[in-house]
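Chapter summary example.
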Amino acid sequence: MISPPSLSTTPQAGALTSVELHGAWDIRFIRGNAQPLMEQLRLYADKPVSWDVSAVENLDTTGAALLWQAWDRKRPAMLLTKPEDAWMFDSLTTLAAAPQPPAARDPAWPLLKLGKASLSLIDHGAGMLGLLGSALLDAMGFLRTPAALPWREISANIYRAGAQALPITALVALLVGIVLSYLSGGQLRALGAEGYIVNIIGIGMVRELGPLLAAILNAGRSGSSITAQIGVMRVTEELDAMSVIGLPHTVWLVLPKMIGQLVALPLIVVCTDVVGLFGGMLGAHWQLGMSYSQFLFSVSQVIPLASFWFGVGKGALFGLLIALVACHFGLRIRPDTESLRHGTTQAVVVAITVVLIADAALAMLFSSVGTQAR
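The structure predicted for these 374 residues follows.
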């Protein structure tokens, strides 16, 4: 009968101790006793002892690996083993002694990395453009039969991207308006130009900060939700099922989300503008003593109507871009959870980057639109 692994010590001449192993040092016995055996072996690992493994009844690679770890991955100077077991320790010694060649770095690695990034950018750009074209063609097909559109899905997207996002968007806009008023008020008071705080807050909030805040919050909230929803459908094979029964992804997934974002985000921008101006009014009253009526009257005088509609139009464009990016990355997710995590994160980052690039481009192209007070 095979006995469990054990060890004993025998004193030898010259104050040398022999550590003798007995029993079966294989996976059957080691699997549940690895930690106690390792602790016993460690007691003699750093001492000048001789190791006798010749009495072991059965030794496999698991037992040899355990001993090797206890010996700090070095073969003892005095080791007695069976000839049929010696090859395992010889192999471990050879592996430990084999030098690991340093990873050679290609001198052109910056160009290779830049090339890969450029190809990936072109691939994603072409994919988004193709997805946008497919959605536009499907939308044109519904011009004659608008009743065939998935209106329930469109209304659900408007509700999720619009009504459910109002509390957090309004809170951020209120705080930004107060902070902007406090930061600007101190500088304007030093110059004796307190009245211009309405110009700074009004134009800045309506033309830039309102659409940009709404879009960034929407990208982080609704954009990630869209990508995760489509990605989970890929993981659960719902997208494959839709293809099998003949339901186009662009009609039932992409187009409703684009229309929902196109409608919801301009409304969110209007709400952000109003709440942001309200926060600016509170800050101007608390810091500069400006009355509420004076602030509201000045707002109606210094904010051109073109700036307001320009900000609302940017909100519609940002909503369309966010939905496009989110759907693109959602449809590219592979059926595994790691791809779902990576795709959702990448969608949010790319959506915010695209929004900032589009905002900068619009600011340069339409710098003369709505910049003059009425």
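To summarize the output: Residues 249-288 form the longest helix (40 residues).
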